[in-house]
Amino acid sequence: MKKNRAILVMVLTVVLIGLLSFTSIVGFGPDRLGSARNIILGLDLAGGVSITYQAVGDTPSSEDMADTIYKLQRRVEQYSTEATVYQEGDNRINIEIPGVSDANKILEELGTPGSLYFIAQTDSEGNQNYSYIGPDEWSLNKSIEELQADGSIVLTGTDVENAKAGQVTNNMNNTEVVVELKMTEEGTKKFAEATKKAYAAGESIGIYYDGKFISVPNVNAEITDGNAQITGMKDFQEAEAIASTIRIGGLQVELEEIRSNVVGAQLGEEAISTSLKAGAIGLAIVIIFMIAVYLLPGLVAGIALIIYTGLMLVMLNAFDITLTLPGIAGIILSIGMAVDANVIIYARIKEEIAAGSNVKTAIRTGYQKAFSAIIDGNITTLIAAIVLGLKGSGSVKGFASTLALGIVLSMFTALVISRLLMTALYTLGLRDAKYYGKAKEHKTINFLGKKNIFFAVSLLLIVCAPVFMAINAGTTGEALNYSLEFKGGTSTNVVFNEDLSIAQLDAEVKPVVEKITKDANIQLTKVANSNEVNIKTRELNLDEREALNKALVENFGVDDAKISAENISSTVSSEMRSDAIIAVVIATLCMLVYIWFRFKDVRFAASAVLALIHDVLVVLAFYAVAKISVGNTFIACMLTIVGYSINATIVIFDRIRENLGESRNKEKIAEIVNLSITQTLTRSIYTSFTTFIMVAVLFVMGVSAIREFALPLMVGIVCGAYSSVCITGALWYVMKTKVNKKVKLQKKDN
Prior knowledge:
Elements: H1 3-25, E1 48-55, H2 62-76, E2 84-88, E3 92-98, H3 103-110, E4 116-120, E5 130-134, E6 137-140, H4 144-149, E7 153-156, E8 160-169, E9 175-183, H5 185-201, E10 205-209, E11 212-215, E12 227-230, H6 236-247, E13 255-263, H7 270-294, H8 296-318, H9 325-354, H10 359-391, H11 395-427, H12 451-476, H13 484-487, E14 489-495, H14 502-517, E15 523-526, E16 532-537, H15 542-556, E17 563-568, H16 574-599, H17 602-626, H18 632-662, H19 669-701, H20 704-749
Antiparallel strand pairs: 1-3, 1-13, 2-3, 4-7, 4-10, 5-6, 8-9, 9-12, 10-11, 14-16, 14-17, 15-16
Helix pairs in contact: 1-8, 1-11, 7-8, 7-19, 8-9, 8-11, 9-10, 9-11, 9-18, 9-19, 10-11, 10-16, 10-18, 12-17, 14-15, 16-17, 16-18, 17-18, 17-20, 18-19, 18-20, 19-20
């Protein structure tokens, strides 16, 4: 790099940091475009819109309600991946959508859930079911109930298997936007019969959605393949919106809206401020640590992390990603991976300097040798994030979005930004090796010699999970301390005599509720522009409800008539849990295949996955022993452990692969494994330490809900470091030597 170019790099770096800082803090224009203030926050951090629907008619079955809740959950994810849907009482469904404040707009866009009908033009007696009233406008001549009674509704949304927006060329050779429909097996039969009848009579079939006709096509042939098209879309966006809604399917339960409110943050107003402070302090500590350990490269890493943070804030804003506690977990993990990438690079540079290379050569070689470990580690985790985003739902999607974005940005800052800065500083005269440090020669540690001890410790920790879950189930009836997100609870609506602030609710009301319910995981949400407050707790029996009502009356002078309570279902439905499990399984299999492909040895992949399972089970044991609340953050915590564990393991395996390639004596596998773990030990410790610091500061400074999330995450970080260093290499070695030997002996005997 020439000096002029180096100066330009430094100037552009300063400009970039300034621009990102200005954008994040101030923003542009009257709407403060790009400002961190505009990042969409979840219900737990900032509140949103709460809508309550009630089933029309008789009380639906539990199966119909569960089906309706799941389909509505998929539907409202168009507004936010963090939107939640849950049952209240026997016949009500609550929808909570974060990051929005206009309930009427949401209601208008959401429409009447599940109201998709295919209507025959005439009934059995030849009467017209609908009439043409103007350009592209039709009206019903009967009610939906009457049409259902006389059999004029030939299909509903439940008969549609899939819908997608597309483009076709019409008879005039013009491109037309359409919605392409694929019917279910039953829907195909119904549609074939309906189109046969309509074609014979020269009639149309009206497609009626959300209280209006969206298309009334004439039937030109009997359609037996179950495919249909909705025409008349004004643009592709409209077609996408209709297709998205239809894909969810028709609902089993007809709903009507009974109330809608704007609600405040569930975690209280302190959650955001303390999280921001904790993040800033944690980041500052990490940067100071990096400078202290790696000198000039550490300073470069600090600058790269500042740029990473700025880019992350801007991207969260640009992509309208809703930020919640699970999202914060994804960011923490990606910061850890950003630090990790720099640590790998700088450790390599110090090794090259210690080996006698000049600084220029050490920088170039360090980046080259670190490249494969960084790419493999990040891509493996990125694969998991993509699968979780595609297959998961709710908080899983939120976690995946922030993690995927963080991974891409961390690779960019580590491999591009930091390299440009490092080269520029060298070009500008900082060429002395003392600025870069020199790796100390460490005596190879015999990790494999202690593998039996490590395996025994791991087995003991893993066994703790089923043992304590069984003990908990025997004493409390539940294996884990499930929160209301997993098992439901009681929702108590209270109208206070004055408009209490969120801070007052946290300081005055929350302690009273906790004392009565013995529940540390209550959620208080304030209804905007009113004195109404919603209190969600574990399920309360009649005596507990009466005690809570009495306490509210005595402490706050609340009118007993203005207190009402209903049981609510879990916000994490069984279907959502199934989605999460399936997503994790698929992600694990994809990671296994990728590692197998990259390392050309299935034993590397198997060892990595086994270590991953080990970490998850150990953290599960901690949840069981410590009786930490198991809610949405539990899923985020486990997913974080999965990503963190696999990344740390890849780094060690990359070094084993490298040393195996350089070794001429394939019999000294044990020495190679011990050497590889020793060479990467400093990286493992430093990366774990910096990530741990980020979470620890969050634990110390955060509100109670955040602390309950941070504590098991810290356990997972420590466990991930332990398994990577002590377990993965040993597992691979055992598979490589012992298992292979047994297989060969069996083949010889046969």
